[in-house]
Amino acid sequence: MDNHFQLTYTVDVTQLSEIDQLRQWVVRTSRLVEISVTLNSTLDLDRLLEFIIRSAADLLESEAATILLVNEQNQALYVAATTDPDSQGAIPVPKEGSIAGTIFREDRPLILNELQTSSDSFTDISETHAFDVHSLIGVPLRIRERVAGVLQAVNKREGIFDETDLQILTNIASLAGVAIYNARQVEALNRAYDELGKLDQLKSDFIAIASHELRTPLGLILGNAALLKDFSSGELSVYADAVLSAAKRMRLLIEEMTNVNILEAGSAELMMAIKPLDAIVEDAHAEVRGLVEAKGQELELRLPEEPMHAMIDSPKLTMADMNLMNNAIRFTPEGGSIVLSLEHHGREAWIVVKDDGIGVEEGQHDTIFDLFYQVEDHLTRRHDGLGLGLAIVKAVAESHGGRVWVDSAGIDQGAAFTIAIPLPD
Q1: For the chain, how big is the Rg over CA atoms in Å?
Q2: 50, 148, 164, 411: least surrounded by Cβ within 10 Å?
Q3: What are the tens digits of pLDDT across the range 311-363?
Q4: Whose CA is closest to 51, among 155, 196, 183, 244?
């Protein structure tokens, strides 16, 4: 009777033990899933490392956990994060003569359950922890199939580290490798973005300073060249006229440089109001009429019978129209013709500048609106310009909620540039 009772009791204990193991397995698996979700949603590297070591220490029921990574510059191992509050950060760990170095170099896990802290076999335990270490488990940490560090835990609170602990730590290390790689990529992207921002600011500052500093001497050149032309004759007058013409071209270039800020300001800097579009077109026509006549070209202005009004920034839209006109004048030969028109198309107003100049190749219809783009090679080109005018036109049109495009049958077939501006309801 007693034997039967004893046997029944033993079976019950075994069943309870299996249930406890199953329950523990479910808890650990659920925690690994939770860790996976958290790691893939965190891109801050410091927070990521902190979460990894705390999760490892918690799941393995250990006194502390540590991540060691490889320094990209000197390729040395260092403690990147640890749960030991008394440990010093960024501690270097030698690859030779250390447990972490052995795991890293040999690319294999280690379980040491009877570790003697007094032993001289390994140098990293006493240096990286402020307490006695009697057991340790560690696994390689791979990033993109390359061993890039070590994840380890020390001092099992109850019992010893076993194969189950090793599997758990290996799984955490696999998840951590992917998460660390993603976080580093984001950090690199942010650094590159910051550097790009600095370079862009330097460019803007340079353009602003250069254009400002050039205006004063250019003003003197223009003034003196105009006076010299008025008070001279013959060959000297021809030279003065050449200087004056070159100075005017330089002034146009400086104005283009100054207007680059429009590309960066966007719609935030627009001073919008309901204005007549006819006046915009007429102002642009009046501004360039002298240049057209000087080049021996013909200029025609076409306006609709009914005036049109739109919500616009008048100075900026006038400047965009002027840029299209200057572009047409520049690329239309002497004796050529240019037509500036304002047209009503549905719920849009179209400002069209059409010329019979050099035209646009089929593959350049979109790229000519890119910043600093030049139709001709910069070493052999025959026409002036920085490649800013059409980019500014595009920026102004889009900031008004409109668009710009070019129609051209090809080289020497002329071109028609159109700015479309939405009309109010």
Answers
A1: 37
A2: 411
A3: 999 988 988 898 899 889 888 988 899 999 999 999 999 999 999 998 888 87
A4: 183
- Condensed to tens digits (0 to 9), the pLDDT of residues 87-100 reads 655 678 888 888 88
Residue written as tokens 């026409």?
A: 383
**CATH entry 3.30.565.10 includes domain 267-422:** yes
Q: Please give the distance of CA 119 from its chain centroid, rounded to a whole number.
A: 52
Is residue 253 a contact partner of residue 290, using CB atoms and an 8 Å limit? Answer: no
| CA angle in degrees (0–180, nearest 5) for 234-235-239 | 125
Q: Which phi-psi region, left, alpha or beta, contains residue 155 (left: φ > 0; alpha: ψ -120 to 50)?
A: left
Tell me which residue of 337, 375, 367, 333 sits closest to 354, measured CA to CA. Answer: 337
- Beta carbons of 376 and 312 less than 8 angstroms apart: no
Q: Are strands 146-156 and 62-70 parallel, antiparallel or unpaired?
A: antiparallel
Read off φ and ψ for residue 182, nearest 5 degrees: -60, -45
pLDDT in tens, 263-322: 555 544 678 899 999 999 998 888 888 778 878 899 999 999 888 999 999 988 988 898
Share of the chain above pLDDT 90, in %: 20
Q: What is the residue extent of each domain of the chain?
A: 16-190, 197-258, 267-422
Question: 16-190: what fold?
Answer: Beta-Lactamase (3.30.450)
